[in-house]
Write a structure and sequence with these properties.
alpha/beta; 6-stranded mixed β-sheet; two-stranded antiparallel ribbon; 8 strands; 27% strand
Length: 187
């Protein structure tokens, strides 16, 4: 992807997020904080056009960062479509990259796994997040990946709300790359 193509795709993603995912109102976030807006990234990440943009842009960011993971994934439900889109884009580009899902809790039946999909101990992985706010859920996913034997290269998020989460993740020792910030969205 050329720089021009990447810039155009990012502009389209920003427009799509503004149109589909930014909702104004009075909301209580998972952190317990109140907000005058909510970013329901799933309205974009679960759409066909959003998947195409996010997959291509996410793969480009992985390459720019120099990250060569075997798999990408994060906490279900937000990370799932993003990870799948990036893995699909990698396949289309002839790269080998798989996806995994981190459950909120370890399964109490069947295999008893917390991490499902393509994840094995020793794998280099990038943790995916749809929206970073406090960083708490991202750090939870990092902890699960590391507990499962994964080597976390970094974190890739679709949106950073710029409320300190990125700083918390980086303070824990993990580099963070984002596709879009809340400032880009004009919120």
């Amino acid at each position: 992807m050329t720089a021009t193509t990447s810039a155009q795709a990012r502009t389209r993603l920003i427009d799509m997020l503004r149109e589909r995912s930014v909702i104004r109102g009075d909301f209580v976030l998972a952190s317990g904080k109140r907000s005058s807006y909510y970013i329901d990234a799933r309205r974009t990440t679960m759409s066909g056009p959003g998947q195409a943009l996010i997959g291509t842009l996410g793969l480009a960011v992985l390459r720019t960062c120099g990250w060569r993971p075997r798999a990408v994934g994060g906490l279900t439900l937000g990370a799932d479509p993003v990870a799948y889109a990036i893995a699909h884009a990698a396949s289309l580009a002839g790269d080998s990259l798989d996806a995994f899902t981190v459950r909120k809790e370890t399964k109490t039946h069947g295999t008893g796994r917390r991490i499902e999909g393509c994840f094995d101990p020793g794998d280099a992985v990038v943790v995916i997040e749809d929206v970073i706010t406090t960083g708490r859920s991202t750090l939870d996913a990092i902890g699960a990946a590391r507990s499962g034997g994964g080597q976390v290269l970094g974190v890739l998020a679709v949106v950073d709300r710029e409320e300190g989460g990125r700083r918390e993740i980086e303070a824990a020792g993990f580099p963070v790359a984002v596709l879009v910030t809340v400032s880009d969205l004009g919120v």
